[in-house]
Amino acid sequence: MRLKRTTERVSEDHAGLTAEDNFIFICHVAAYRFAIDYVRDADVLDLGCGTGFGSAMLAKHARSVVGVDVAPDAVQFSTDRYGTSGDGNLTFRQIGPLPDTRMPFDDASFDVVICFQVIEHIHGVDSFLHEIARVIRPGGSLVMATPDRRWRLFDWQKPFNRFHVTEWNPQQMREIMGRVFPQVELFGMTAPPEMLRIELDRCRKLRLVAVPLTLPFIPEGLRLPALAALTHIRDFVRGVVGQLRGRKEHAEFNGREDDITIAPNVSPSTNIIAVARKANEQSDLA
Q: Most CB within 10 Å of its CB: which of 29, 58, 158, 164?
């Protein structure tokens, strides 16, 4: 099965298409590698597993991994490609959209929840985080990744990504996660300047082009279709230019996930990595 490409899916199949795709892909790989230390011998939920490659990475170290996604084609793709990998400790399931539906898991089902590049898509983040906390065992952890708006958007700007409801800075992430989890630790994600420039330049261009559509007073009913039209125009122009040039329209990219640094207080940071711990009922709530 070949999965339809979208801007919100990262797949091993798409890793080599453009320099931007390559950078985004290795950032995802680096985030999952960072999470490995938290999932060793644990029961893990990969919430928003997408194409499943990250779930498969975690399954090599965890006791069990369940990858879930709202998209049925992504779940089928993940099952077909990775469902038989590892030691039979990896499964994939479709779930309904959160927080409108409840996940099909009992309370305290998992030691760790991984949630990468999902929360920015969510309306009602408090309910979303409470639902995540419900399925985490006492003392368990949530490892989350989301774009760092400080390097993507002007302070007043709505997201130029039409699929994103909200993007946050680290202080805002600490605040919203702290309303649900008693302990929150934040990290940033960065890279060498020659690699980081690829993403920073991409975001700089997009935020400028999208300014008329992302002003704070622009209603969502206008922002979303206008950004969709802008994306279609951009993709059409890229395709025409690529055909005229007869070659790919990007420079060579030789970066690897080992070049990505995830650490506290790094700058510039393309993504926020947050690690939150659920209260241990025997001690934290005493």
A: 58
Burial of 51 (0-12, 13-18, 19+ CB in 10 A): buried
In angstroms, the CA 128 to CA 126 distance is: 5
For residues 4 and 21, what is the distance between their CA atoms, to the nearest angstrom? 15
Beta bridge partners of 263: 188
Q: What is the pLDDT of residues 203-235, one digit of tens each?
A: 999 999 999 999 999 999 999 999 999 888 877
**Is-contact 113 44, C-beta < 8 A?**
yes
What sign does the CA torsion over 279, 282, 283, 286 have?
Answer: positive
* Listed residue (39, 45, 93, 50) closest to 74, CA to CA: 50
Tokens describing residue 40: 């060793």
CA 66 to chain centre: 17
Structure tokens at 77: 């793709």
Separation CA 146–CA 167 (nearest Å)? 8
